[in-house]
Write a structure and sequence with these properties.
22 helices
């Protein structure tokens, strides 16, 4: 028998004593789901009432931040933008909360960050929609992105209602596959419906359910989109009936699964009837709104059904909190060890700065190939430098708790092979970037590798408490590489971005060093907390944080940034100062140190996302 449904959400397992009430994160995710659904509905109201150009420019409306109250179309369009802004702030809060509280849970972390990225992309599409005067293709893409965002926040909601540790065994059941196929076909049906509206073929057939009195009418450019939409609807209806029957037969132990499947199946005929009324009522706005609202609800129910059944199966595979391990596979373990040599999490942080810098340099979206080539080259360079770093530091890594599970310490890879691997990645990165990007980017990338290995790892790290201050410059070079990849030069805004990462590094790393002060002392690494003590380290963190915030504000005039970046720099910098002040006030608090460390990652990520968003949306202050 399966676990009973979780009270409140109606999904997920029984709560443990520690999970009796919903977490604030789960509540935030639930609000995000509701507001995203509302955003879809308001978007249909805009489309059905012909208010898409009620505000002829973006983001202002008739030259003002407040729409004219005597223009109903402007008010409707601006209500859509306001709802989108609320969803944006909710997605931002969701992403920040995930980075701060769920950094070790990638199944929550990355979808939460992805939701914010989708909101930004959705905003860009909205801007393009207005500028293209409601191009049909862009409108369809806008809806497709909205539905993807809706699904992503539903996933975050469902996943956050389950325990962190679940069995890794248990492949998808036949029922889960059926639900997934039904959901996928439903998504296609949504897009076909949007295509019918975009191509103006809603009245291709004056009758329903027949098409010009036939089930197989003559197909033309005008009738084909509508024909495909109707037959796709038949297919979805059959799949929904099959899913509901399968749920009643095989999932009775899980009431939430049955309810999701049955409710989707019940809503679909109603949605079909409303679709028919669009023909008989000449596409009256209320028919369009209700039609798509029901379609979005069915899509959301089906996607939730897939996620719930997947995690329910993992819940049942083993007791809650116990993770089953697959039989060891030597080749897989070796592959994982080589990946671990590159320090993937550090690479993620470096690449977070790369793409936004390229967007700023381009003042738009650069060539996808150029971005991919630069990211690949940066990944190879960072991975090579990190592998060589682990080769050099393997003696002290064995003495520290934080690093005892690294591949060389566990003898999963020989030191010789690790060194060869690191050198090969480094050489490969230079060759790759020379061939695919440009020589300047390749040279800058190579200089970062040399600085990290020879200056930081071999010289500074074991000899001075200023090791991370000077050595941290290696981690700042990716922004120069990114700028050079787009422009072929190193501009002043790139130098300011370099300085942002430079002043960010000491507070970020010293906070971690405070947490592992004993480890560094044991390994005889002169980190600042070991040499100068916790109080001085907390003071230095506060001073560098002040410098960081000031330098981040310098990008506003130097880089020609707009409102989005200015607000992000002020808010994120203010929070960073608050964390630093708390640590300074109580420098012996390990919790305060690790909280600052985690927030510092969120800060850098969100600040550079703001750089990209500001470059694309270009919201002026005046």
């Amino acid at each position: 028998m399966g676990a009973p449904a979780r009270p409140g959400l109606g999904i997920g397992p029984s709560p443990s004593a520690a999970e009796e009430r919903l977490t604030r994160f789960t509540r935030l995710a639930a609000v995000a789901v509701a507001m995203t659904f509302l955003l879809v509905i308001v978007g249909v109201v805009v489309r059905s009432t012909g208010s898409g150009l009620g505000c002829p420019e973006w983001p202002t409306c008739h030259g003002s931040w407040i729409p004219p109250f005597n223009d109903i179309h402007a008010i409707i369009e601006y209500s859509h933008r306001t709802t989108a802004a609320i969803v944006g702030f909710l997605a931002l809060a969701l992403g920040v909360s995930a980075v701060v509280a769920y950094r070790r849970r990638p199944t929550i972390l990355w979808p939460s960050i992805g939701a914010f990225v989708l909101v930004v992309f959705q905003a860009i599409l909205g801007k393009i929609t207005v500028e293209s005067e409601l191009s049909g293709e862009i409108v369809t893409a806008h809806l497709a992105t909205a539905m993807a965002l809706f699904a992503l926040v539903i996933y975050v909601l469902v996943r956050s209602s389950y325990p962190a540790r679940l069995s890794r065994s248990g492949r998808w059941s036949g029922f889960t596959w059926l639900a997934a196929i039904t959901a996928a076909v439903t998504y296609v049906l949504l897009l076909l419906g949007a295509h019918v509206r975009a191509t103006g073929t809603a009245f291709a057939f004056p009758d329903w359910p027949l098409m010009n009195g036939s089930l197989l009418p003559v197909l033309t450019d005008t009738t084909t989109p509508h024909f495909l939409h109707r037959w796709a609807g038949v297919l979805v209806g059959l799949l929904l009936v099959a899913t509901a029957i399968a749920a009643l037969r095989t999932q009775r132990a899980h009431r939430s699964v049955v309810w999701l499947a049955v409710l989707a199946a019940v809503l679909f005929p109603l949605q079909g009837v409303v679709g028919a009324t669009q023909i008989f009522f000449d596409l009256a706005p209320w028919t369009q709104v209700l039609h798509l609202a029901l379609a979005a609800a069915i899509w959301g129910l089906l996607f939730a059904l897939v996620v719930v059944t997947h995690y329910q199966r993992r819940m049942e595979a083993s007791p809650v909190g116990e993770v089953e391990r697959r039989p060891a596979d030597a080749r897989v373990d070796t592959l994982r060890a080589y990946v671990a040599l590159t320090k993937p999490r550090i690479i993620e942080l470096l690449l977070v700065t790369t793409v936004p810098t390229m967007v700023l340099a381009q003042r738009g979206i650069p060539s996808l190939w150029l971005m991919a080539a630069t990211v690949i080259g940066g990944t190879l360079a960072a991975g090579g430098a990190n592998a060589i770093n682990q080769y050099v530091d393997r003696d002290i890594d064995d003495l520290m708790r934080r690093t005892r599970r690294r591949p060389l310490v566990r003898h999963l890879i020989s030191p010789r092979n690790a060194l060869i691997f690191g050198v090969a990645l480094s050489v490969g990165s230079f060759a790759w970037m020379t061939l695919t990007v440009n020589l300047l980017s390749a040279a800058l990338s190579l200089s970062a590798i040399a600085f990290y290995v020879f200056v930081y790892t071999l010289w500074l790290k074991r000899n001075t408490p200023q090791n991370i201050v000077i050595g941290g410059a290696a981690g700042c070079v990716p922004v120069l590489v990114a700028w050079a990849a787009v422009t072929g030069t190193v501009g002043v805004p790139a130098l300011v971005l370099f300085a942002i990462v430079f002043y960010w590094t000491p507070p970020h790393f010293w906070a971690l060093a405070l947490r592992y002060r004993t480890d560094y002392a044991t390994a005889k690494v002169p980190m600042l907390p070991v040499v100068r003590g916790e109080a001085e380290t907390a003071r230095q963190i506060a001073l560098y944080t002040i410098l960081l915030v000031l330098v981040s504000l310098l990008l506003f005039p130097v880089g020609g940034m707009g409102l989005i970046y200015l607000v992000a720099a002020v808010v994120l910098g203010g929070l960073f100062l608050l964390y630093a002040w708390r640590l300074w006030r109580d420098e012996t608090s390990g919790r305060a140190a690790i909280s600052l460390f985690r927030y510092s990652i969120s800060y850098l990520t969100l600040l550079f996302i703001a750089v990209a968003a500001d470059s694309l949306l270009r919201v002026p202050i005046f």
